[in-house]
Amino acid sequence: MTIFDALESGVRSYSRSWPVVFDRAAGSRLYSEGGRGYLDFFAGAGALNYGHNNPVLKEALLAYIAADGVTHALDMFTVARRGFLEALRETVLDPRGLDYRVVFPGPGGANAVEAALKLARKVTGRPTVVSFTNSFHGMTLGALAVSGNAAKRAAAGVPLTHTVPHPYDGYLAEPGGGLGQLEKLIADPGSGLDKPGAVIVETVQGEGGLAVAGLPWLRELAAVCGRQGVLLIVDDVQMGCGRTGPFFSFEDAGIVPDMVCLSKSIGGYGLPLALTLVRPELDVWQPGDHNGTFRGVSPAFVTGAAALRTYWSGRGALGNLEKSVRAAGERVSTALAEIAGAHPRAGLRVKGRGLAAGLAFPVTGGADDRTAAKVCAAAFDRGLLVETSGAAGQVVKLLPPLTVSDEELDEGLHILGASVAAVLPRTPRSAVLSRPTAPALPPKEQIL
Asked: How far is the C-alpha of 406 from the C-alpha of 262, rounded, in Å?
């Protein structure tokens, strides 16, 4: 690994937690160059909802490349671009009665957020955007400005302006989650708050400790925005594409945002792709108002379309992913509650929704705040990849592929239970879920 230390910047992070060289991957597992298998409950930070090298998506990709399909075309019309748009309309938008125009803003989630912020300001003529405590929307300047994490904001090196933070649901013990206060501030010309052009929110704060916005809170937030003429942007970069169960994480709340940011798993295969969905009347861009070299990578169009038609069509054995994710989420939540219950003095709390779940450890402001990181390290030693979440790194976060099998889920949860037991002092044996370790090399059919 000396080449990495010799040439690569110190900005790298995940490789510090998992100091091995990975060589190949299949389904829910990564394999080191030495051949050891690691159960992957990180899944590319949510970019691999359909697992590593999903065979259905791989077949579509290889066929496209073998036929000399166009790889790079900026925003020119291509067969791959058309196929993706048709699949998105037929499997996602039309079945949900959603009428959005699709912006291809660039290759990543921050691009989708930047485009939404830029367009909201252009449409309304109002530069201020309301964001929420503990939010995270990306590392570019506009996305950082609406993010809450102090350490990430500090890396910007310049003032992050034209944003106003507001308490997220549950941040304050206040009836209504503070939305009455927000509406009063927006409506009152004497409040000192410049009327915002938009509000941006995550329904589950993936990097903010897996805090979950309640469905009534989301409905009231949408209502406040509607009454006050403020655009509502939902950042579904990590929680979209089925991570919480439905394709969009806001569906259970019954709301229709003005704009939606998607990336990560929208490309299906882990290839770069991002979308900003906007209501048609908001599509006031002039040609070239927002562009970039990689705002539509054709191989990602191909695998993205294949993923939508395979997992979101409602047809066939694999076509109802929402149902299986909801069931798996309940399975994970129950197991995490069992682990937490086995350590009653540790103050553990179950966090998240669907297959974005975790265990929160108390934040003390001292050395004990490293407990979640120690659990993640212990899990790595046992062959499980999980990361921390939250401003203090206090949450052990699980993001397994949505295609994970029940056996793999049980295996990973067993490892997690053993890791928690290894880190917390004087833990009873009941803390460790009694599941055998799965084989190092899973059969190919488990990839689906």
From this structure: 27
